[in-house]
What we know:
The complex is a heterodimer of chains A (about 400) and B (about 260).
Chain A (H helix, E strand, L loop, with lengths): L17 E4 H13 L3 E8 L2 E6 L10 E6 L2 E6 L16 H4 L3 E10 L2 E6 L7 E6 L1 H15 L6 H8 L1 E6 L10 H4 L11 E8 L2 E8 L2 H8 L4 E2 L2 H16 L9 H6 L6 H8 L5 H5 L6 E7 L5 E8 L9 E2 L2 E2 L4 H20 L9 H4 L7 H11 L9
Parallel strand pairs in A: 2-8, 8-9, 9-10
Antiparallel strand pairs in A: 1-11, 1-12, 2-3, 4-5, 6-7, 6-14, 10-11, 13-14, 15-16
Helix pairs in contact in A: 9-11
Chain B lengths: L8 E6 L5 H7 L5 H7 L1 E4 L12 E7 L2 E3 H13 E7 H6 L11 H8 L8 E6 L9 E3 L6 H12 L11 H8 L4 H5 L15 H4 L16 H10 L4 H8 L7 H9 L4
Parallel strand pairs in B: 1-2, 1-3, 3-5, 5-7
Antiparallel strand pairs in B: 4-6
Helix pairs in contact in B: 11-12
Amino acid sequence: MLTQSNGVAAKVAQRPAEVIDRAGLGALISLLQSDGYRVIGPQVGDGAIVYETLASADDLPAGWLDEQSPGHYRLVRGPDAAVFAHTVGPQGWKRVLFPPRQTLWEGERDGSQFSIEPAEIEAPPTVLLGVRACELAAIAIQDRVFLEGAYVDAGYAARRAALFIIAVNCARSTSTCFCVSMQTGPKARTGYDLALTELCGGGRHDFVIEAGTERGAEVIERLERRAAGPEDLAAAAAAVERAASTQTRAMPPDAEGILKANLESTHWNEVASRCLNCTNCTLVCPTCFCSTVEDVTDLGGDHFSRERRWDSCFTLDHSYIHGGSVRREGASRYRQWLTHKLAHWHDQFGSSGCTGCGRCVAWCPVGIDITAEVAAIAAAAPAAPKDKR
Amino acid sequence: MQRTKVKPKLAVWKFSSCDGCQLSLLDCEDELLAVAGAFEIAYFLEATRAQTRGPYDVSVVEGSIANLHDIERIKKIRAESKALITIGACATSGGIQALRNFGNYEAFVRAVYARPDFIEGLATSTGIADHVKVDYELRGCPVDKRQLLEVLSAFLNKRAPRVAPHSVCVECKLGGAICVMVAHGTPCLGPVTHAGCGALCPRHDRGCYGCFGPAEGANPASLSRHLAQLGLGERELAELYRSFNANAEPFRKEGAAHDNE
């Protein structure tokens, strides 16, 4: 079952959508657990939706909604018992695929000799349940970062290959969402084994279930289900359309061009007057991939290891080279982040590094909004010397 | 295999302080024997009456400079020490006693002491680095014992200590703690505070109160504008920055900006 390499899912022949009910969702989780997977999904923890290992479908955040705005996140009670009515929580799936701390190798000294053992890579079969379209896009971006090119990240590759992904199509947007403008959502298009659309209310609680891979289809075969009727499909389409049409935030078109043309904008200093340099935007970002490597020893120096942990372009150490840090000012660090994410990412990886999930907007303690900053940089730009007809 | 090297001489000194940071070393219960095995404990009154004369390979200094004898003593210690490491908020920024820096020192002395004429204090409490060259500063009130071991371990192994100067927010995010300010509206100094505690308070649903002092690149002015929106008044803001690290420059400046009295 877990034979795919690099997590690239085999394409499946189009299979008509089907419907499972709330009990069917519980059965789906149990079935995958009995197949040997740990199932990680959304649940309520410390006043937010967090992605943790589920014991059963009872752990899902039934009846909870999230209200998000710049620098603000609250869980509130929803009108029904929907389990996926929330949007994205503070932690992305990045924690699973690219853990915050990893031991790369451990070593021991024996007299004048020493030995080094690579750390064992733990990659248990894992189901990610409730992955949103913007999050699938983020995983696809990190796949390019960690799996393509000359240097493949062995740990990421092993964990990625061990995934079974169940996407959820969003039926709701919160004020920080802007996936429509990034063309990543709210409907999951690719990169999943199964996709669910929750239909809750009016006396029903069902899920339209679709397969994205052969092994996803095999799982559906083992569930109690019925064929989706036209009204199910219409309701599912309406739910996604509602999520799309209620989005209030958007990335300005051509953010790449705006930023590349305004590297010396006066607005960078204005942002820096608000930016805390706290690194939150980068650490909640599902595509930010920077890490640093540190050596650890015990007091005697006989046991040692090399550790890798998340880093951020907002720290001074991130740009430290011989002689000091390159980006000493907050303005240059913010510019580095924004221009890499939205402009130079295109040159490096062939896409934007932003998926429109809105985490950096909500979890910035002072509510700095990536979309508003790009718009402000465009507005502050001197008139471009374009040829007039 | 045991190397037959001469063990470096370690001295632990106290200035104006509560002894809490020195006690962090004694608090390293599991590692204490290893520390005693790796160093010759040459001077550490909290641990032993035995004293060995200098010079010392490494001096660990707790406490602030708060009176005239302190200045003479720290100069002597510096002269006798190959490496000098300051530990804790007092030694690195002047500590809670630096609150005197913002008030009337003479009035404090008269109010506190029955015989003010016996007191030979300075009008300010300042960190050690304001008086002598310091090789490494470890923050915290008190310091984190794992970080203290890390600094000693780095010294022994001649490598850079793994003590990051970034914000407490990094520790929350690494550990998967939910932001108490964004998700609960709890005022928190984490975004401007130096990491090292492992985000102890936010992990227990409390806002950070800055006991590790300012993080690198801290922008307290922006944070204060946000905290005011959360309902904090000018006096509360001034007091927020005026605690254990009141005299650390970014906190000193921000405290003063909200001190309208």
